[in-house]
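Anyone? Bumping this.
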Amino acid sequence: MSIFGEIGRHTREDMIDSDRLDRLRRDFHTDEFAIPTPQCLDPEIIAALAEGTLDAAGRAGAVQHLAGCPLCRRAVASVAAALADGPVTHEIEVVEGRRRRRGPVLRVAVSFAAAATVLLLLWSPAADRFTGHRGPSPPPPATTPIPRSPVGTVAAVSDLRWSHVAGADRYRVTVFDATGGVVFATEGSDTVVAFPDSITLVPGASYLWKVDARTGFDRWAASELVAFSIAGPRRE
Amino acid sequence: MEPWQAELNRSRFDAAWDLFLDRYRRLIFSAIRHYAQDYDDVMDVFAHVCEALREDDLRRLRAYSQQPVHHARFSTWLVTVVRHNTVDWFRHRDGRRRLSTVANDLPPLRRRIFEHVFLHKRSHVEAYELMRSAGCVDLSFGEFLVEVSATYRAVGDGRRGRILRELGGSTPPLADVEDEAATVSERREELALALSSLSADERVAVELYVMEELPAETVAKVVGWPNAKAVYNHVYRALAAMRTRLEQAAPRDDR
């Protein structure tokens, strides 16, 4: 397929097709390495672009340069990613006074406070009257799907199941053989998909499968690859 | 004004440095750890960053401090400077042939690719020609690119991968095996032309959103658009414009 076909099919509807986006990404690489020039942006402008604080006039010139300079684009993307990194964000908030760093005294105080809270919960008469949920708080919503079955050695595979991902509207399942060849691939909105009878899985052979959950526009969260094999005949 | 800046203004550089480091040590370390994971690497990069910031009586800090207007917060500027120095340090170190542990684990062909592409900054075509002329590779260019892609994937995993990706430039083309060099080059030219038809902000948005995979919210901040939705809309329109341009530029050959 030519590049014209690739881009030509890249309509609003199929833009969410990640395979096609991946192909597009490859083709966007018009330069592998760039040489710094005197026009390259200084660290403060890169910082301002990454945090979005550059004024309109300054941004116009900087964006003009970014359009033609992969080196500076990479730097802006890199700094923006670093700023979104939890530990970096935390330390910035600390040095800017938006968050306090816990010192030894504070840590001790917090420990005492936590212990006191536990004691109050244990001894308070109100606790005896409490009839609501007493278990641990529910876990945070999963951000990646977890393959549930098949896992390990199984007698047969009639379907593939995985855990729900909050906010996911579509799932993409792929089964590979031991050589990495795709045995089966499909998409759907449920967390289970039937495995077609027409595909023969060889007893004793190893297979891998994974599921990707679409969590937003062109955003897919991939599960770990999970191995399974068939102990006996595929269908009972 | 922060105490270290006050000391800097009095030209008491050692005192300024001590105060600066006391305040920003943790931020510097966290920024370095964003790119490097090995303890020894982190400590060496930290020393390199300190050396760079201290040189010439804190020239960089003085230059920042003396600017009448600042476009970015000091902490973001510092993260940017740390990032640049971290990349420089790894580039310099690997330039002296100290391959990372990851690279050492690569099979011979991919290690050679790593040397050419990451250390010597060769393009993929150059690396291919050099290795072929040295008799190191007996593959078509398409097959070679598959190996290049595998090398990127191998060294690009995990936190260490962040710095290696920085050194290696853009992610390599995951070219189809049947692609030959001329076809790849031709396709790139076509796309470069199509990209050049976009406005600067649209091109930057497409590059950052599609290529660098930055969140749309972040791209909006960089380009100066109001929100993520504006990014989606602009990127859609930009891709549609590229499609039109490509369709007009060439015969329809695969419809």
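Late reply, but here is one note on the structure posted above: Chain B has three domains: 3-94, 101-168, 181-249.
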